[in-house]
Design goal:
This protein is an alpha+beta fold. Helices cover about 45% and strands about 15% of the residues. It has eight helices and five strands, in the order βαααβαββααααβ. Strands 2-1-5-4-3 form a five-stranded antiparallel sheet. Helix 5 packs across helix 8.
Length: about 190
């Protein structure tokens, strides 16, 4: 499986509401299995339900490419304290921790201002710029997660991130335009 990074846009009002409702907060990141109909005789229905939950326009997943993107944006492989100032460090590893546990650490949130700053910063970095920053030798030496094997990182392995990136930029642009807070989770 591995560690994935996911994002959820919510309104300020909804964010205030979930501060007092743990069940509601969990539903922002985890597939709500209680709502699924487990009809094993009809797997297409189950798959359709899962896809519907994951296709919410207010949800975005970087899948396992979170560390690669963090490295391309900041030049840092360390996942602890960052030397990069916001907003680029906020894209993957930023945010203020909430009281809600994720599989790895706590769900974090970006404020309205932080979302605006991230959206503006991402808008200035093209896929072509990310491609220029990619160096497979450096990636492999830095042991960037998930460190594909056999052979490690190469142009083929990084391509899915380059396909996801415009969707992430759009996700943050929409969040900024609509005045949403963004929740980040590592699961």
């Amino acid at each position: 499986m591995g560690i994935t990074a996911s994002y959820k846009r919510i309104t300020t009002q909804k964010f205030v509401e979930i501060q007092n409702d743990t069940k509601a907060a969990e539903s922002f990141f985890k597939l709500n299995l209680d709502d699924l109909v487990f009809d094993f005789s009809n797997p297409q229905t189950m798959i359709a339900q899962l896809q519907k939950q994951k296709s919410d326009e207010r949800y975005f997943s970087l899948e396992k490419d979170w560390h690669a993107l963090h490295f391309l944006l900041t030049g840092e492989s360390n996942l602890g304290d960052t030397q990069t100032s916001p907003p680029l460090c906020n894209v993957v590893m930023g945010g203020t921790p909430t009281q809600f546990e994720a599989s790895y650490g706590f769900v974090r949130y970006l404020t309205l201002e932080e979302v605006q700053d991230v959206a503006n910063a991402l808008n200035q970095i093209s896929v072509e710029e990310l491609k220029r920053r990619f160096n497979s030798t450096v990636f492999n030496e830095a042991e960037i997660y998930p460190n594909p094997s056999p052979g490690g990182w190469d142009e083929e392995e990084i391509e899915p991130l380059f396909e996801l990136y415009p969707k992430l930029v759009e996700f943050f642009q929409n969040a900024a335009k609509e005045g949403d807070i963004v929740l980040l989770s590592s699961d």
